[in-house]
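Why do we bother with holo predictions? Because pocket geometry can differ from the apo form. Keep that in mind while you read this record for adenosine monophosphate.
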Amino acid sequence: MQILSSPQHVRERIAGWKKESKIAFVPTMGCLHEGHIALVKRAKQLAERTIVSIFVNPLQFGPNEDFDRYPRTLEQDKLLLERAGIDLLFHPTVEDLYPKGFSTRVVVGPLAENLCGKSRPGHFDGVATVCLKLFEIASADYVVMGKKDFQQLQVLKRMAMDFNLGSQIVGFPTVRELDGLALSSRNRYLLPDERQRANSLPRALSAARHLTIARKDVDVGEVLLNMGRELNQAGFEIDYCAVASEDDLTPQPDYIKIADVRLPRLFVAAKMGKTRLIDNMELGRKEDS
Ligand code: AMP
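The structure, written out:
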């Protein structure tokens, strides 16, 4: 596994690969866990060459968010990636990606208006800007990303289409702990008692999925009411909880029947103590991988 920090060096390194093999790319912010490694394994199935990036992107963090304290565990990440058998780790510094004078931004459209886009103004513009750069530098045939960050996945699929990028964005199902909690680098912020209570989030999501599979007459209001009750009981402070179609990510009103929504999905962001967790789940059907 080679480790490079300069975009130019990455381009030079992969120029030869591109002629004879497919390339798959997994962008991350590091502090890697089994969810990230599952994406790497998928990438390895898709292409002969695999690139992973680790970059905590300041552009996507708001002024009161956790950029400075975001966990950084580079040495351990390197070991995990070496073991996973990737070809190249791209680990740029902030100056490598945003040198003095950097001034162009991607502005994301309606897909970023709701859910996390509403709670975190400018977040998806920052994500799209860094990803446009990373996708360009890696010039991969495939980019593998988690459905854990479903809105991010849809925003980047849209960007790839809008800008005619040569990479196909591939979504991967959320990898969970045994009790259902979605793996996340931010889970390490949770105190032991909070960690235990946090599993009410995936439990409530699963309950909603089962309910909407079992009964065709369930409406959005009933799903959100159940969800709110469960989360409040566990001590979560809800940021948002919404049902939206995967197509447009626009929250549906309470009276709409889940069965009348195309590709309905339940989205939640909630704080357990100081830690903001997000999760989502398909409704009325099982996840397709
Ligand atoms: P992050 O390092 O949090 O920016 O995540 C990097 C990539 O890993 C993104 O595409 C995430 O959606 C994905 N990811 C994070 N957690 C999980 C998980 N539990 N299961 C699957 N993919 C994940």
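The radius of gyration is 19 Å.
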